[in-house]
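User: I'm putting together notes for a lab meeting next week and I want to include a structural view of one of the chains we've been expressing. I don't have a solved structure, so I'd like a prediction I can at least talk through. The sequence is below, exactly as it appears in our construct file.
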Amino acid sequence: MERFEVTGMSCAACSAHVEKAVSAVDGVKSVAVSLLTNSMNVEFTAPATAQAICAAVTAAGYGASTGDQAAHDTLPDSESPALKRRLLASLVFLAPLLYLSMGHMLWAWPLPGFLEGNHVSMGLAQLLLTGAVMVINQKFFRSGVLGLVRRAPNMDTLVALGAGASFLYSTYALFAASSAALTGGAHAAAEFMDEYYFEGAAMILTLITVGKLLEARAKGRTTNAIAGLMKLTPQTATVLRGGEEQIIPAAQVRVDDTFLVRPGQSIPVDGVVLTGESAVDESALTGESLPVDKAPGAAVSAATLNQSGFLTCRAKRVGADTTISQIARMVQDAAATKAPIAKVADRVSGVFVPVVIAIAAVTAAVWLAAGQTVGFALARAVSVLVISCPCALGLATPVAIMVGTGKGAKNGILFKTAAALEAAGEVATVVLDKTGTITAGRPQVTEVCCAPGITQDALLTAAATLESRSEHPLARAVLAYARQRGIAPSAPEQFRALPGHGLQAEQAGHALVGGNEALLRALAVPVDALSARASELAEEGKTPLFFAQDGALFGVIAVADVVKQDSPAAIAALRGMGLRVVMLTGDNRRTAQAVGRAVGVDEIIADVLPDGKQDAVSRLQAQGRVAMVGDGINDAPALTRADVGIAIGAGADVALDAADVVLMKSALMDVVGAVRLSRQSLRNIRENLFWAFAYNVACIPLAAGVWFPAFGLTLSPMFAAAAMSLSSVCVVTNALRLNWYRLTDDRRDAHWARKRQKAAPQQTLHISGMMCQNCTRHVHDALRAVPGVRAVTVDLESGVAVVTGSAAAAALKKAVEDADYTVTDVETTQKR
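Assistant: Thanks for the context. Below is the predicted structure for the 832-residue chain, given as structure tokens.
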């Protein structure tokens, strides 16, 4: 797989054309073009070469070069400044043009003396002003013409045709007015004033430039993810060379160098601990909510945070070989291979533009053959082109997206691209990271269990005193809980940490010990009174901490990363919308299952490292579009690989950059709001496209003069432009309705769920052995746990279970038989 940088692409049609051109090169196995990063990943073998691939892209009308991934970690936004300059320059000329063409003509605004009554000078002034706008926005014409030459028309082709047709016809009218002025005077020239449509050409170019500017800004922000990943690694490292400490750039650390990491510092490279003990926060790398104890011989990774002790380590992997660098490469590769969501208007324009050109040409030819004048035939052809102007077609999608994204921003939901807003409403599966997404991401005390004869205050006093010298996050949770209840810790003596086990200290002559059950049993402390309850707490995904004083058990304090308050309701709402909810985490399976049961997800995938998360998302994409919700740095590859990456606002910066959607309030319920808003926006876009085409389809026959022979009806280019403008007004007005949409409105959730289920395959299982309602619940739960199942209905009387979803029949049968029931038959039907 080799990476190439591509230049000259402006829309989804361009990236598709590049992909088609490269795929035609002999030896190319696969190619994925990313409009977002202006790059492509190509897998090829001989006889294909990098030079041949670049030549194919060049022949298609674009530019290509081999790209060094390290050299392109940052992708600066070079488009927005140029577009902003173009927009401002266009407005400078558009303002006086509108004054002349509309202010004076419609509202009789005063004109300079040299233009008053001089219709030819008026037209010439409009021509010059429009020409300036066209020169400023000449890129549309270059790209549009190239699209026609390459037989791959795009949105720029529509813009060029609409603006060019208006300008050319207006120029013709200006010359006709000049001729009339010479032969018939000013009164004769005035008859052509209504034939000037210069302002239409300039307005089209300016409005499309506004849309391009907004798109470029969103695109520029999105490509910061790669740079954000690498910024997590510290820029400097403290190494031992010649027995002395030296602070050097982290990039200069060599394999087998000895480096030092103090409390509170990030680890600069991957290595192994030589001396020292500490708790290291690896949540940025693995998603594990609790820090990992490190002792001599333990491995440490770059970009993880040393929380407490002083560590001396030996470097094992440096530079591009570190784990964090590999994650950065995964993000980069995922961004390059993720297919951009094609814009509806771009797909339609490939057919729409040639058809309109053909209709205009046929119109002119037919009227000339019918004996009409060249002026009449040309007017009919130009009317067809003008009424088919891309303004409404071009606005149908971006205006709805603009209003939708604005609505989302007001509610703390940021869609970073138009593609994200479109795609969020089309997902079939929502994948949720556990730590910081479903849970709060901060350990908290959830339960205090006192031994017989011990008060809660006594237990908390002993625990707080012991934990007061520890920097471990669990210790901070215990101390915070004690302080909330007005208990102040005493100063312990002879404090000693036992990494991986617990703590020991003395206070006022009393021996204090705290830690896991194994530690207390090793110290001969009787723990049987609370051992069973501790096991129950562990099964619930909590960490039980035992505390004893002078060899006597004082009690157990349970600490856990608690579930956010809105998580169960949000997951229930997502399932109510017909979406499958999957929890994906690097935590151990026991903790993951406890959290999964508490919030009601459909499937749990645990013990997954960053590359595994990316692979899991890829597997789920085989069942439909996937939205990934996460907040950790390790989520970045999965966020980018998913069709829609949604980042919790309180998460790591890189995750926010890698995501398509950012939830500023860190509320999981906002995922529900994002999906609802996306679906409503998609509905609005379809309505806009319908109205844009309905106006064109209704008016093109009139513009072509179809009704002229029977009714004498024709449509001048002026009225054609008015019809086009009316369609644009309807599109914009309809899009503005999104401002009144409430994200908490769940009235259409059930409709969307039914619509999704109707399109899903349905399997009927005939089951024997069910005797009661407990049996049906057992079968229901077994089937619901199978990946790909969306809905299950079990009927005891008929002995039938109806399963909706993409799960294989063999997997369903095995799940039922593992639950000690028998499947006698399986019927599969495709619901319509």
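A couple of points you could mention at the meeting. The two ends are 40 Å apart (CA to CA). The chain has a mean pLDDT of 79.

User: Perfect, that's what I needed.
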